[in-house]
Amino acid sequence: MITYSIESVTEDFKMNSSGALIINRTLNYALVPSYSFTVKAQDSGGKSDTTSIQINVKDPDNWNPYFLHNLYYAFIPEEQVGFSPTIQPEAIKALPGDPGIDTTLTYSISSVTPEKYRSNFEIDSIGGNLSVVTAIDREEMDSSIISVNIKVDQVTDGRTATAQVRVEVEDVNEAPQFPPEVYKASVFSTDPFKTPVIVVKASDPDVGDEGRLEYSLVSGSPYFDVDASSGLVFVVSVVDLSGQAATVEVKVTDPKGLNATAKVEVEVLGGTSSNDMVTISLNRPANVVERNIPEMEKSLGKALGWTVDIIQVYSSTRGSPKSRTLAVKSLVNFIAVDKAEVVSYEQVVRKLQSESAAVTTELTIVFGEGVQFAVEERPKDPDSDNLALTISLGVIVPCVIILVVIFVLKRSGSFRRLVHFSKKAEDQAMKMDNVNQDRQSNRGQRQ
Ligand SMILES: [Ca+2]
Ligand SMILES: [Ca+2]
Ligand SMILES: [Ca+2]
Question: What is the topology classification, in CATH, of domain 66-170?
């Protein structure tokens, strides 16, 4: 009969007499990864032999990997690309649950909330470094927080762990912007102080900034100025620029000092004086004519072959009491422009007479059948007649005082128009609202 025994004694194994090797207690790879010992077989006569046994303990890896923190924090500035934020409380790191296993961990992003920011983030699969690959616009976000859910995979057996990075997108002040085009406008050299030239309008990406943008001129000018809040560029005095082109540079500044500039090219039409202004009368009320100024300019322009710019529309009851005896009538002051040159009074009157039929046909399209026009007598030139000026001052002054005149930016182009409106203050306020709307819409007309 043969009996078996372990020669080198270990408490972890035992062998029974029939030769079965038995695990005596739980093996721990971390403590003893392998055993080697000798076993002996012996017969009843005392003869024996030995052999060596090598036992390797397997590490079963029954632990998931884990992140050192369940929740990480990151702060990123908006509008930045290729940015790797500093992660708090420390850099993202995961470890295998079983330290004895040499396994590869790979990091990935499992989901992002809100989902639309999924493509904005990337994580380095080996190092776990989180980066922003597409800029995030803070102004487009409902909340400044984005949750990036990350995952680590243990390549060998697919065991995983998850964690979250709470990303806070920080607002950065951005500069205001003008549209890229150059603003173009025209004024007459005789235009008085405060004549509107054009409205410049910048935008600012930052919430709340837009309403607090301030406009100013890049350098002071004796010719033009700009209203700080509305962006309305207006004439100071352009009489010295007659026949020239001027460039006005307007700066817009946001509440934190970032700015942008825009150029306004202003053509100052020279040689214009009241001498070039032609007055015609129409048998239509002034308010009807006012409403049809663009159409009337177009139709007159078509009949005369020039660009017509209506300067003023008023009721014929102004001035001479004699005209009050007439039926409804309005007077229209205009100039004709041919290739940026103002056409002389005489030329315009001659053409109005020679093209009378064509003018009437065109005006009929605008004002309907029965419309009639007549060329009004040329007003006296005050400069050439000082005596007349002195005598007529008593008449002129009251007329000037009761006239409330405002300027309207022409919808079809950059000339501005002077329209006569009601004397009443509330009417004026209402009309100024309209002017402001016109100014706004004028922005879309830039060349
Ligand atoms: Ca932004
Ligand atoms: Ca911003
Ligand atoms: Ca800003």
Answer: Immunoglobulin-like (2.60.40)
Q: Which ligand is nearest to the CA of 208?
A: 3
Q: Using one digit for the tens of pLDDT, what is the confidence trace for 59-70?
A: 766 788 999 999
- Residue range(s) in the chain whose domain bears CATH number 3.30.70: 274-402
CA of 182 to the centre of ligand 1 (A): 25
Q: How far is the CA of 170 from the centre of ligand 2 (A)?
A: 8
Give CA 63 to chain center in angstroms: 53
Alpha carbon of 175 to ligand 2 centroid (Å): 9
What does DSSP say about strands 245-253 and 214-217: parallel, antiparallel, or unpaired? antiparallel
CATH number, span 183-269: 2.60.40.60
Cα 210 to ligand 1 centre (Å): 13
Q: What is the CATH number of domain 3-56?
A: 2.60.40.60
Q: For residue 81, report the distance from its CA to the centre of ligand 2, in Å.
A: 15
Secondary structure of residue 37 in the 3-state scheme: strand
pLDDT digits (tens, 9 = 90+) for 132-177: 999 999 999 999 999 999 999 988 778 899 999 999 999 999 999 9
- 204 Cα: distance to centroid of ligand 1 (angstroms): 9
From ligand 3's centre to the CA of 139, what distance in Å?
Answer: 11
C-alpha of residue 212 to centroid of ligand 3, in Å: 9
Listed in order, the ranges of the chain carrying CATH 2.60.40.60 are 3-56, 66-170, 183-269
Residue 161 CA neighbour count, 13 Å, CB half:
19
Ligand 1 ion: residues within 5 Å (CB): 137, 139, 205
pLDDT at 326 over 60: no
Q: Starting from the CA of residue 202, give the closest ligand.
A: 3
Taking CB atoms within 8 Å and a gap of at least 24, the contacts of 25-29 are 27/57, 28/57, 29/57, 29/58, 29/59, 29/100
Q: Which of 249, 313, 302, 251 is nearest to 279 (CA)?
A: 313
CATH 3.40.1000 is the classification of domain 274-402: no
Q: Is the pTM of this model over 0.85?
A: no
Q: Give me the amino acid identity at 54.
A: Q
Please tell me the number of the ligand nearest to residue 135's CA.
Answer: 1
Distance, CA 441 to ligand 1 centroid (Å)?
Answer: 26
